[in-house]
Automatic annotation (TrEMBL):
Signal peptide per UniProt: 1-22
Residues that span the membrane, as ranges: none
Family annotation (SUPFAM superfamilies): Periplasmic binding protein-like II
PROSITE patterns, A to Z: PROKAR_LIPOPROTEIN
Gene3D superfamilies for the chain: Periplasmic binding protein-like II
Pfam families tied to this protein: SBP_bac_1
InterPro entries in the record: Bact_solute-bd_prot1, SBP
Record keywords, A-Z: Signal
Keyword check for Signal: yes
Domain of life: Bacteria
The name this protein goes by in its record: Sugar ABC transporter substrate-binding protein
Length: 451
């Protein structure tokens, strides 16, 4: 009964995109059938994924003969499409990028291939080298891996060192959110057209919802108490959300209500904002002189806090194999390669060491080439990942694990609907308090399923 309800919830969450999925897609099932010489891969359009799409043909395909057909989508569209495909068992893709949120839920539903057996057989893969937080977050209830990490991340603050030096500002290594708000006001307009800070305002549980929830946590709020009492319009949640919206409205990027990770990355790298709070994985792109105007001039600080000692999130974009694939062997070869030391070396040598998809292997941080390229952000990234506490990210016990999300299938829909309203508040179309009062009603309906 519970599995049926999960299927209904996840499929409904993606229903809006079902017609698009049926019409566009990646060309249906793999052309080779069981032969495994062609696989379809669905992945989010982040820089690291764009890199692997460029490198695969002349490396993996050349060595194995396996052709990889990539479908690359923005984060919100990716989440809708992969949920649609997996929850309805459409079988359109052999591999998909999913995250720590989906893995334990989908494993319980029997939708994913276990991957530990493949990783254990491949001695060159070196499963023991994977960082423990990544392994834990991508394992099922049986202790086996159900996704292989492509890269791992926490969150931190990135800032333009030239701007801070010109203003005589020293950004604390462990700042508070109030300190960051004060700095944002001082550097707003420091250069023509520059705003003080970039914060995600694009609706979506994994877009605005991710960064906002870390602020809610450190302000003492939570989506649900341990005994499943909804807290979306609690004083702590409201205080955090009002702070976030006021900051981004007062000193945030232009068009903030439509700005997610990609838009903020562009704004920061092109000197349109002086600071940015977001994923640690962004550092590699900011330090790439080919695409960033501030490469070599970026400062990094731990995720800002208010009431907690730390507040960085924990996430991994990872490769998963739906059980519907008919190309398990070929798909597993691709995933093992994409998460391997070999692939990291390929990226370093061909594209630059700062662009290595890090945050998943201990050995990455021991490579002299990577240490040099990541000198400004490597250590703080690793420590942020190690310090993230998905079991206890706030001031009170939680009903599930997860720093920036609630690990239940309903959260995908709940988080998206609530952030749609908060995004509207950023755009000046409603108030934060009304958005959260409406969100409280939705959260209370979800809580009824668990009490």
């Amino acid at each position: 009964m519970r599995t049926r309800r999960m299927i209904h919830v996840l499929a409904a969450a993606a229903a809006a995109s079902s017609l698009l999925v049926a019409c566009s897609g990646a060309g249906g099932s793999s052309s080779s059938g069981g032969g495994g010489k062609s696989i379809n891969v669905l992945m989010v359009g982040n820089p690291q994924m764009e890199d692997i799409a460029k490198l695969t043909k002349d490396t993996f395909t050349k060595d194995t003969g396996i052709k990889v057909n990539f479908t690359v989508l923005p984060e919100n569209e990716l989440r809708d499409k992969v949920t649609q495909d997996v929850a309805t068992q459409a079988g359109q893709y052999d591999v998909a990028t999913i995250g720590a949120y989906e893995v334990p839920i989908w494993e319980k539903n029997g939708w994913l291939h276990e991957l530990s057996s493949y990783a254990d057989k491949d001695t060159a893969f070196d499963k023991a080298d994977l960082l423990k937080p990544m392994v834990t977050s991508l394992s099922g209830s049986d202790g086996k891996l159900y996704a292989l990490p492509f890269y791992g991340e926490s969150s931190f603050l990135m800032y333009n060192k030239d701007v801070m030096e010109a203003k005589g500002i020293k950004v604390p290594e462990r700042p508070t959110w109030q300190q960051i708000a004060d700095i944002a006001a001082k550097v707003d307009g420091a250069e023509p057209g520059m705003r003080g800070i970039c914060l995600r305002g694009l609706a979506g549980w994994g877009e605005l919802g991710a960064s906002l929830t870390t602020v809610v946590n450190t302000y003492g709020g939570t989506w649900f108490t341990k005994d499943w009492k909804a807290q979306v319009n609690s004083p702590e949640f409201k205080k955090a959300a009002n702070f976030y919206v006021d900051l981004v409205r007062g000193h945030g990027e232009a068009g903030a209500a439509q700005a997610g990770f990609t838009e903020c990355l562009n704004a920061m790298s092109q000197k349109k904002v002086a600071m940015w709070y977001d994923a640690t994985s962004a550092a590699g792109s900011l330090e790439d002189p080919k695409s960033s105007k501030i490469a070599g001039r970026v400062g990094y600080a731990y995720a800002p806090t208010t009431e907690t000692k730390s507040s960085g999130w924990l996430w991994s974009w990872a490769w998963a194999m739906p059980k519907t694939t008919k190309n398990a062997d070929a798909a597993s070869k691709f995933m093992l390669w994409a998460s391997s030391k070999e692939y990291e070396k390929t990226v370093g040598e061909k594209l630059g060491w700062s662009r290595v998809p890090a945050g998943k292997r201990a050995s990455t941080y021991e490579l002299p080439e990577y240490q040099k390229a990541a000198a400004s952000f490597g250590d703080i990234t690793l420590k942020s990942i190690e310090q993230a506490d998905p079991a206890n990210p706030g001031l009170q016990p939680r009903p599930t694990v997860g720093v920036q999300y609630v690990a239940i299938p309903e959260f995908q829909d709940l988080g998206t609907k609530v952030t749609q309203e908060i995004s509207a508040a950023i755009a000046g179309k409603t108030s934060v308090d009304k958005a959260l009062d409406d969100g409280q009603k939705l959260a209370e309906e979800v809580a009824k399923n668990y009490r």
